[in-house]
Amino acid sequence: MGPYCYGIRNHRGDLLVQHALENNLAIINTLFKKKFKNLWTWTSPDGTTKNQIDIILSETPRKFTNIEIIDIKTFSSDHRLVRSTYNLGKPIKSRAIFCNKWTALSNEENQQEYLETLKQKAPGLTWETSDDIETYYDREESALKQKIQEK
């Protein structure tokens, strides 16, 4: 039970707190500091009595980041909605993290060695200064297809 409550607890409120303690549950509504006018969730039909009777119980109170009482006037009710924000944890990344492996080609000597190896292994793959990217790609694709067919 947190320090932020509304009003005085009756017998049923005491039973609820006892149940929460016995079952290792936290009363989430009482964990977040809110303005006094934003704590009550129920009002009597004559509008004179207000109480905090709609609550959220949870075994994982640290996952909650906020709780709000929403006062919606669009429908006739003596209750106000309770909305909480729950942190689901770290999002699962959809792609693997790739590290930069191209640092070996950062100096001129390694670049020349790479080009020589490429010329030896695939003689049809040479970049010419007059080539545009589409022409080079087409030649690369055809050279790879020939290598696959040779095997």
Description of the structure:
The chain is 29% helix and 14% strand. With 151 residues, the protein is of the alpha+beta class. The chain has two domains: 11-86, no CATH class; 104-150, no CATH class. The protein has a two-stranded antiparallel sheet. Strands 2-3 form a two-stranded antiparallel sheet. Strands 5-6 form a two-stranded antiparallel sheet. The longest helix is centred in the last third of the chain and has 18 residues, at 133-150. The protein is rod-shaped and about 90 Å long. The N and C termini lie far apart (72 Å). The mean pLDDT is 76.
Secondary structure blueprint with pairings:
Layout: H1 11-22, E1 26-27, E2 42-43, E3 50-51, E4 57-58, E5 64-70, E6 81-86, H2 108-121, H3 133-150
Antiparallel strand pairs: 1-4, 2-3, 5-6
Widest beta sheet: strand line-up: 1-4
The coarse overall form would be: rod-shaped
Helix content: 25-40%
The multimeric state of the shown protein is single chain
Largest sheet: 2 strands, antiparallel
Number of helices: 3
